[in-house]
Automatic annotation (TrEMBL):
The keyword Metal-binding applies. Residues 23-68 are annotated as: Disordered. This is Copper-containing nitrite reductase. Pfam families: Cu-oxidase_3. GO terms for molecular function: copper ion binding; nitrite reductase (NO-forming) activity. Cu cation binds at H128, H133, H168, C169, H177, M182, H328. Residues 82-192 form the Plastocyanin-like domain. The keyword Chloroplast does not apply. Its cofactor is Cu(2+); Cu(+).
Amino acid sequence: MFDTNRRRVLQGAGAMSGLALAGCTGEAPSAEEPTNETEPQPQQTEPTLDVDRVAAEPTDIPDPIDRDEPAEVDVTLRPEEVTAEVEDGVTFTYMTYNGQVPGPFIRVRQGDTLNVTFENPEGNDLPHNVDFHACYGPGGGAEATMTSPGETAHLKFEAQYPGAFIYHCAVPNMDMHISAGMFGMILVEPKEGLPEVDQELYIGQHELYTNKETGAEGHHKFDMESMAAEEPTYVVMNGEAYAMTPDGYGHAAEVETGQTARVFMVTGGPNLTSSFHPIGNVWSDIWAEGALSSDPERNVQTKPVAPGSCAVATMDFPVPGAVKLVDHALSRVARKGCMATVNATGEERPELFDPEPQ
Ligand SMILES: [Cu+2]
């Protein structure tokens, strides 16, 4: 599907703007310009912050669907190019859907029709689009939504099959755009709905490839070479290093012991598979690939979530304490920013877990 569409997307991009094609050779907006040392160069100014936070709020998920009939659902996606912090003192110019990474959580029911408005803001530098994996149709809608800055496109499709699916930018430099943050999840609930849980969480993992060392202060520019080599500077959950931990914005969620939580996980990549694991817990049920038509696997420790795929998992919290959600390729956790925590509070249960047995 990709290959047959790619040429046409390339042609479309070329017709609308040379920027995307220029980017193919590495002349992306943040790439280094050659300098002429005999002439004075203009003062290089570092981009200023556009937003305080690019990390999607993990609990910002539409409510479960309470309908027996199909509906038409309006969705507006705006590709927004914003400079924000990856961690304290480190800035990066992200490409996002609606200013957050991952993009807005879209929730529909099998059989619903989506009316998508795709608004590429005037102030952007690049063309963008969206490919929904929940969509039967060329490029998942990528060609229909291909827009240059200042253009708006519309797409209508029926979500015919249930599951949790990624959506992502699919311009010619799609790896760069996804790595800069352009991915999110669309959940197509089965007609019968999902089992009830107490909390739902939205987590997206992806890699940032920059021209500086991990943690080096200042503005990091996008780096094509390290992306081609698949050697990321950061591997993050929800766009920023350790955003959803007590060192960042706080726990991804607070639960009480005895409650259940459902984690919606999407791996944007563009290159690395997440070995998704809850430290001090287990995936009680997990629908690999987000394939909700299948039966879940039970009590799974670590589940690969490939780039361009999702997982839907439930967790139980019989005892209190923080659970760390990680990619079990642990150098990404220890050195590159990849962790989110969920904190369970409640009565100690020494008969189940006793850290200081007498
Ligand atoms: Cu894009």
